[in-house]
Amino acid sequence: MKFHNVHGSGVSLLENKTVATRADNSFCNGIVFSDLPVKVNQKVCLELTTVQTWSGALRVGLTSLDPGKVSVADLPRYALPNLAKKEGYWIQPINESFVDTGSRVTLYLSSQGQLQLFVDGLHKGACLQGLPTDRTLWLCIDLYGNTKSAKLVKPDEAPKEILARGPEAVLAYEEACTSGTQPMCRTRLMLVGQDRVGKTSLKKAMMGQRYNVNEESTEADGIDLSASCSFSTNNHAQWKMAVRGEFEKESEEHIEEKKQLGIMGGAEGLEEEYYQALAENIVKELQQKGKQKQEAPKGKSGSRDGPRMPLPSSRKSDRSVSSHGDKPHYIPPEMISEVPDRVVQLVQDLLEQTPQVNQSKSIQSKLKSASSSSLSKSNQSPVVKEKNRKVVMNIWDFAGQPVFYTTHQVFLTCRAVYIFVFNLTQDLNSVQSTQQENPDGEMTTLDFMDFWMRSIYAHTSQNTSNTIDNTRLSPPIFVVGTHRNSLSTDPTQQEQMVEEKFEEIRNFCVNKPYAQHIVTPFVAVENSIENDDQVSALREHVEEIAGKEPYMGEQMPLHWLRFERELANLVKDDFNHASFDQVKEIANNLGISSDKEVKIMLEFYHDLGVLVYFGGSGTMDNLLRNTVMLNPQWLVEKFTCILVVKQVEDKWDMLKEKWRLFQERGILEDALIDHLWADVIDQKPVLLGLMEKFDLVCQRSLDLSLSQSNGGQKYLSYYVPSHLATCGDNKRLYAAYDTDIVFYINFCGFLPDDLFHRILTRTVRWTLGNSGKEPYSMFRHVARFYLDEEHDFVLQMAPRRCHRIKVVVMRVVNDDDYSSVESDDNDNYRDRTPKPDVCAKLRNFLESSLFELKEMWIKRLYYTVCVACPCGRPCYSHDSPNCQEELCMHFLNLDECLSNRVVCCEHRRVKTNLFRKWFPEPFNMGFSGQILPSIDMLETHGNIEKHNPNLPVWVKSAAKLLNGGEENQDWLALAKVMGYKEAKIEKITDDFNPGLALLADWILTSGNTALSVDMLVGYLEKIHRDDIMEVIQQAKETNQDPPQVFISYQWDCQDEVKALRDRLEKVGLSCWMDIGQMGGGDQLNSKIDEGIRNAKAVLSCVSPKYVVSHHCNRELSLADLLAKPIIPVMFEPVAWPPPGGMSLIFSQLVYIDMKGVGGHGGTGIHGDLNDKYKEITQRVINYANPDLTKYFDTETLLSSKESNAHHESSSLSSMESIDNSLNNNNLEHTTLRHPYPLPVTMVTQREYTTPQQVTVTKCGVCTIL
Question: Where is this region: Disordered (predicted)?
Fold first, then answer.
């Protein structure tokens, strides 16, 4: 938005019309308008510059008159009262005490017709009401009095957690702010690093506490949250401490300290924070009423029409003081009738302080006025003082033992300042003895640093400061070395050794993704010295960096702040969780009546880590959706009881076997859970549900043998990946064969064990849901799973420094078959090659799971799917031409391989035919209808090209390449591979263009369909003619119209969806359906976008997994945004409308139930499958016209057409012609065995009962063969 060209005579527009400045010699003629209308719920922010020469301040308002139709000569000198009297103008003055140089005035037009006013983020109320939001409104402001200029700037946005939730959440936040706001300055200081490096001692040193030489290691639950503090950003004084947990009874001074800490001081701090904000608002209201009463006569004098009289500073002082009068001992009862006594006390205190403050301001005003010798001096650049902020900070001390790392990831947030602590006396590249308990391998100090910094980087979304010259990213990470004095007693040598350590760390961090998060310079401290200068410098640097974080000073709605206080009180009373209805009741009592606002507020606090709530994230489990975990720390404590539990010697005999099963195989049985959670047994269902939501455990299938041995009683058990044993030899799981398909998921330098364990958990859940089969065997870094009756797959985590997962897909046959078959037996070799659709299904699951993990937990998780490059690049480290060592392998991007027939690696060009066979072709890529026009080969007279000039270009190009081919790669070699007899070959040889004659004869005699071309591609591959195959592939991609129907589905019901797609294709409705070839990432997203935009209708195949899938939610949202007709088809029972984001789209739609079990709005419940197919076709044909020249399902199409009157006549005529054609031809069907493994397109284009057989029409190949 900019300022309009129409403005007052005293206004000049600068900086591309974003700055409006009034002339120095005038206090009026400053009316300006916006060039664009103000939309409902839009914020407009003005940054003001003021002078002390005049009286009065800015006037703001709206107008329904187009400024472009207003004459400059008609604009009055003053907006008040001149413009305000005219129809279509709404103007209101802003209190002069509200604004100063650098103040930001934000105007917000609400849907209720109110113009809300915010000054420097503080809500001042609705300055205008009853505005006609149904009319077009422009902004109108008057640069009056002491307001010199106004600059349009970007409004202060809602917290980024609110912005990430979408426009609906932003709107709810803005509406909540209209009831009053309070700026919040709070953060966390998180100390991370190895065990026994001095984190706890550093914390005490920064807080001014004494050093304890016998300081114990932080264990317990893995995080020590016992310390909080506060500081002022403009006063580097000692931190004010509020140490919790050291004394059972707190003194009054201690409680007062906690009150000063806000949320960091617990319930007392939150309560005091809310009371202070409420008291400030009451005082402002009292001051406003008093000022209105005393200024009422002034409005009648007309003093606005001229400049200020002599002695302006004296007048301003008198007016400023008299506006308050004597000390207001009396407070109207109606203003404090429903507020706590503490608020009344704070109001009295503030009123007693106010006259002194305003008198001080008047004195300053006199000094400024006296020092101004002329009006021109007021044009000097104003000096804006940096705002002083009181920051409250909670200090979190993370335990350094690796067993706690899984639970630590839950608390990593961008709203924190991190300090990585290490021991300066330890070698940065050597493994320390304290890490021997780590079961995942040895790590050096630099490895630990890299792990923690990548963890912080990955789990926190990117955030930058709003200063242009600051390139550091948020959250900031300090690097602190301890035990400085232990390096050397010589100060010079000590400094040199410290610098060498720091230089090595700087070189290590170069080009790392987290490099911009690191704060320099690094700090070397000695915790044992009281008042160490380096500790003091570190403390001041932390204050400076924390005070500049972008979330500092964010406005918190007062209702939300009070709600937060109520939750803190509940936690204080040992209420660790509550139902959604209970939380909703608390919110309603505080004036938050909208269910939508309650959910958005809970989601916001969930993102902040204040509580845990999954009710709005598409969770299907009703228990989790209706549960709010008020105390996340208590939740992690209970998780820790399971994840890091250690066997004790004094245990019950009946649990010995269960302990052994848990420690050796990671299987946790129900009875052992009851033992570990004995104190919270009634909350067990909620805790288990949350552990499954966090992917920390996965429920197994019921153990029937265990049920029988316990009188038929069924016991539940769970896999806990963090307790799995290490596999000594991978050959115990599988033996590698050349037929196995192997691809990798590369995590770009960061693959922690807890991420791999989460993937294992999701994989177990997926395979159990698809087949009901347990994993064959699971170890800490490798597991083998059942995929289907013919396939298994293995997930294997590579060595730590490789940061990738190896995926092996294998076709399962008997070992006898393997040993008895020679490697050159092509048929048996193909029988052992995994099917393309199976590989695509597995890849889709893995990428979908990683995407969901990225959306929910690891915000900056980067990964690519790749394959080992077969280029044979020599390895000089191991003197091998094709080294298979993990650290020596190099890879090709799988998506690039699937998109191109040739790619380049660092060594040479690589053909991708092998990789393209692993995955199916996209279904919508291929020929349709007849390939060639009808040709009588006998009438070509040896020159087919002359008598048939309209042959497709790609056929002619392929023939030209065949004619010029080398021996064993020309048309003759192709004819022999196809099985042509000598007599037929001689006839083709006589043609002027034998290559073209061969291709035309093959296509026409094998059915003249897309299947003929697919079989041709198979033969071309056998003679290694990749160039001709590329010509055919390009022709496929350009030889079709965009699909009419986009099918959105989740892979759990792929077979049923493919059957539906085939049915639609039979009636001439082309469909877009991703079955895996396109892979993931930007390539898939662009194809999906193209498919939805070109589609006439979108079929939404609903199932429980579809509802919670992020991919499917995005597809449906895009279709709804583009106003595409959406037809929901329910494949598995789901509550209607489904919970989560889809409910808004589906609530007004009627679904088709494919399972025969109905619900709200269900249709076709009692019909058979065929009737439901017809109903879907009828719905689709309302938006798309089928191509009747390509498909022959006359029954479905005819019934569908008869139900649509506007298509009826064309339908009947077309169907009659097709029926006559079919009856007259009396086609004969012959079975033809494929000469080569089924090409990809043949697999995906139609479902065949026998994959190696197809049905063709008018077949003459049998006679040729």
Answer: 287-335, 355-382, 1202-1233
